[in-house]
Specification:
Layout lengths: L10 H5 L7 H34 L8 E5 L6 H8 L12 H8 L5 E9 L3 E8 L2 E7 L1 E6 L4 E4 L10 E4 L2 E2 L2 E2 L1 H15 L2 H4 L2 E5 L7 E5 L5 E4 L4 H8 L3 H7 L3 E5 L7 E5 L16 E5 L5
Parallel strand pairs: 1-3, 4-7, 7-10, 12-13
Antiparallel strand pairs: 2-3, 4-5, 5-6, 8-9, 10-11, 11-12, 13-14, 14-15
Length: 292
C-alpha cells in the first residue's frame, strides 16, 4: 500500500501559528531590566561615595605643601594667611573655588590658577596687579592700571616713576569711573619712558575729555583729552623750550581740541592761574599755529 505524503503548508501560514508575546510581559521585562541597571548604578555610586569618604579621612592625602609661584608684592606667608587652610585639609575634597575666592580678596591678586598635585601638594600660580600711580586721598594709596586701590603707600616704597593722581573724589567718596580713568592714563604714560619721567601729576576731576597734566620740569600744565594724551604730548613736549622762550609767561597748554593748540599765558599784572576748575581767572589766549 502506497502512502501519500501530505504537502507542507506554505511558510506564510506557519508564521501565523507562532505564539505572540503579550504586551504586558514585554513591559514587565523592560521594567525589570531598568531596575537592574538602576541597582547597578546605585551600587557604583555608593561604592564611589564610600571610597571618597574613606579617602577624605586619609592622613596620607592631607595638604602638606603649598607651592606659590608668580608673587612679588605679597609674601608666601601673606598668601598662606589668605588661604585659611584648616589643619589636615584633604587635597581631594578641598573646594578650589573657595580657595580662589579667598585669594582674590587681596587687591594685589588679579588672577590665580590652582592645581592639585597628588599626593599632598597644592600649587598656586598668582598673577598680581602692579601699581602705576599714587592716589591722593588724604593719605596716599597705590593705584593699579584697572583703577583698583592696592594698599596704603608704605614709607619704603619707591614712587620715583609713579605719577600723583588727584580729583578721584566727589562728595560721596571715590568715584570708580575716575579711578579707572586715572589707572588707564597712568599705565599709558608708563609705557612711554620719556613721558613718565616728565609727568608729575594727573587731575581727573573734570572727566576724560578734560584731564589736567602737570610736568615735573619744566613746570607747565597741560589740558588733554585722555584719548589723545600720549600722541599729542609726545609731539609737543620737545617744543616746550622754544615756546617758553617765545612766551615767557607760558602757564598752560590746551591740547583738548583736534587740529590746534591754545596757550594760556599768565597775566603779567599777577594772575593766579587756575581757579580750581580748569578756568583761568585772568589769562591771555594765544591760538597755536601748528596742526596736531
Amino acid at each position: 500500500m502506497e502512502l501519500k505524503r501530505t504537502p507542507s503548508p506554505p511558510e506564510r501560514f506557519l508564521r501565523g501559528r507562532r505564539q505572540r508575546v503579550r504586551p504586558g510581559r514585554r513591559l514587565r521585562g523592560l521594567v525589570l531590566r531598568w531596575f537592574a541597571l538602576l541597582a547597578a548604578f546605585l551600587g557604583l555610586a555608593a561604592a564611589f561615595v564610600w571610597t571618597v569618604t574613606i579617602a577624605g579621612q586619609a592622613p596620607e592625602l592631607a595638604v602638606a605643601r603649598v607651592l606659590v609661584l608668580g608673587n612679588e608684592q605679597l609674601s608666601d606667608g601673606e598668601i598662606l594667611e589668605l588661604l585659611e587652610l584648616s589643619e589636615g585639609a584633604n587635597i581631594l575634597t578641598l573646594d578650589l573655588e573657595v580657595v580662589r575666592e579667598r585669594l582674590l580678596r587681596s587687591a594685589w591678586v588679579r588672577e590665580v590658577e590652582i592645581e592639585r598635585v597628588l599626593p599632598r601638594t597644592l600649587t598656586l600660580r598668582i598673577a598680581e596687579r602692579s601699581p602705576v600711580a599714587v592716589a591722593v586721598l588724604g593719605e596716599l594709596y597705590l593705584l593699579a592700571a584697572d583703577g583698583t586701590m592696592l594698599d596704603e603707600l608704605a614709607p619704603h616704597y619707591n614712587i620715583e616713576k609713579l605719577v600723583l593722581i588727584r580729583g578721584l573724589r566727589d562728595v560721596d567718596g571715590v568715584v570708580p569711573a575716575r579711578a579707572a580713568l586715572a589707572g588707564r592714563m597712568a599705565a599709558a604714560l608708563m609705557e612711554r619712558e620719556s613721558l613718565s619721567a616728565l609727568v608729575s601729576e594727573l587731575d581727573v576731576s573734570e572727566g576724560e575729555r578734560s584731564v589736567t597734566v602737570r610736568l615735573r620740569e619744566p613746570a607747565v600744565t597741560f589740558l588733554v583729552n585722555s584719548a589723545t594724551m600720549v600722541e599729542r604730548l609726545e609731539r609737543l613736549v620737545p617744543l616746550l623750550d622754544g615756546l617758553q622762550k617765545r612766551y615767557n609767561a607760558l602757564d598752560a597748554v590746551d591740547l583738548r581740541f583736534d587740529g590746534r593748540i591754545y596757550l594760556r599765558l599768565r597775566d603779567v599784572a599777577g594772575a593766579k592761574g587756575f581757579n580750581g576748575r580748569g578756568i583761568y581767572t585772568a589769562a591771555t589766549f594765544v591760538p597755536g599755529g601748528a596742526s596736531f
